[in-house]
Amino acid sequence: MNTSSNVQALPSQTINFSVANPTPSANLSLAKSQGAGFRSQYSTWSLTESTGFMQFNLQLSTPVRVAWSMVVCAALVDGEANNPISINVNGFSFIPDYVDQDPNFHTINWTIPPSLLNAGDNAITVTLLDSASSQFFIQSVTVAATSLTRSNAWNNDGSFQNTDLLWYAKGVGAMMSRSLDDPTSWWFFAAIHGQYIVDNDDPGTPAPSGFPNWADIPPVPAVPTSPLPSNTLIAQYWDQCQHAGWFFPPWHRGYLYALENILSIIIQQQGGPANWALPYWNYLDTNTNELNMPPAFSQTQLPDSTPNPLFVTARYGIEGNGKIYIDPTVVNQSCQQDTVYTDAYGGGDTEGFAHFGSSTGDLEQNPHNMVHVEVGGQVSQTLWGLMSDPGLAGLDPIFYLHHSNIDRLWASWNQADNVNPTDSDWLEGPNDSDPRGNRRPFYMPNPNGSAWLYYPSMVNTISQLDYSYQDLNAQTSVTAPNLMQTRLRTLSKTSTLAAPTLMQNKDTPELFGASNQKISLGTAATQVSVKLDNTPKQTLLKSLASVSANQLPDDVYLALEGIKGEMDAAIYKVIVNNIDAGHFSLFGVRKATLQTGHHAGAGLTVKLNISAIADQLHLVGDLLDSLDIKIEPQGSLQSDGETCTIDRISVYRLANK
């Protein structure tokens, strides 16, 4: 990760307190002190009086993640040390109570997240608490810009031997102990993504009577529904998640970052590591046990025999039997082969805030949506797992490790020289000056309770947020040809693997076939025939017959438009003329169907690239007057009737440039 800009903002520097008059560093100075001073007999400074303090001023050109290190030792009185200190950052109680009993000089470390810091002056105060009866010696203070590394949750077999998971559990437990109306609580954060407490996850709709109302979620966890935050806080924070549109990746990156900052502080307050970062679950590595959920999430107790906050009852799996694993025949990372963000990898332009839009990107469609349903699952038509529903998903601790992996894939996609949108409508996000559509901005709670307003331009890269990943390589070989390379080789019948440069295609796709009636899906397979219009079909055939490195073939898409229903916990497989076309999930369909919701009941739209299928049919002369489409459910699907309807199945042609 390139952190040069942050390092330049705060290079490593030390103030030496082994002298009476320490020299300030470029960015750090001792602004004032009281009940503290130089002890010549020990050649160091110490805090000597109860409530004695040393207040430092840290100057920053821009907020960065700061490593705060002190070389200290404890003073003993009758062989014991009693010198509790606190560290306060800009008025926030960062470390409220730290006790050191080592009489030898040693280094202690903390990491201060940028969410607690300002551009300009920052007051960091080290205070000897009034319960102290011995001194606390400080020999030096060092500050430096630092970064975090998010590591694989399956390190040390995914058990609590992995300290990242152990401390995650302890941090989650502490957040769960906070009340619903606390913006830094586990429950409040889950409601930021979506909730069923005050409404049906959309303003103007009554909360469900019974499950999935949060009051009726089977414990554990025992989910609170009161005390409610103020209406102002609910309107500012709750029901924000961006799905089925191009804000999906950046909104969730900011969501994880905000949670990680809060957990990092909690974990350090409990004596955990200064460099803790949110792990990721890489369920895409099919050669290992990582297809299974890390075992730490299935244990009912922590190693100290206390309840495990990572354990969730409503986590049923794709077969409904509680076994949580990811089916590699359904879940994949083919999205990483995309070379364009808008209308492909990241989703379509939603023209503003879209709690659930109708233009799902490939990253969101698979693996994101598939993993949600394969983990959550269902046990009946009226009871499904937390992960299967956006209004419940943030309550499950595995959610954040899933999204950490989704964020890792996006970072990996960028590392492969794929670029994010440069359109100001994406970079600036929905905001108060946006003349288009819904203007609701993105807000997250900071650890000190203040609001962080952010835009995609602020989370465009992970280096902007001072973190990286243990492994940024996608499991698919980097030498594997992308879809267009494969098509060129297949259609031209040569071994060329020349990689064409594809630009974002802003042309309007041409419709050349559509079903003529609403389609109902249930627990059995459904057959649909889509008639193709002859003129655009002939244009497509001409394109496929004249392929060269300079004459790219047209793309062909199958669009399932206006998917509506009440049950998110379903995955379907699509087969076109007996050839697998891919899978789609109903994750989010309940939200997208609400008539009074943000998307006014338009439902979901799923787009499948069937260009390779069109190529195969063309080569054997079977691209005829219609496509035979079969849609069949995957896993254990519990339903007494239809799970959803589809307004229309359409076929589109798009010329490549």
Automatic annotation (TrEMBL):
UniProt keyword terms in alphabetical order: Copper, Metal-binding
Region annotated Disordered, chain positions: 420-440
InterPro entries: Di-copper_centre_dom_sf (IPR008922), DUF7868 (IPR057190), Tyrosinase/Hemocyanin (IPR050316), Tyrosinase_Cu-bd (IPR002227)
Protein name per UniProt: Tyrosinase family protein
PANTHER family, per the entry: SHKT DOMAIN-CONTAINING PROTEIN, TYROSINASE FAMILY MEMBER
Residue ranges occupied by any Tyrosinase copper-binding domain in the UniProt entry: 243-260, 396-407
Pfam families: DUF7868, Tyrosinase
Entry annotated with the keyword Heme: no
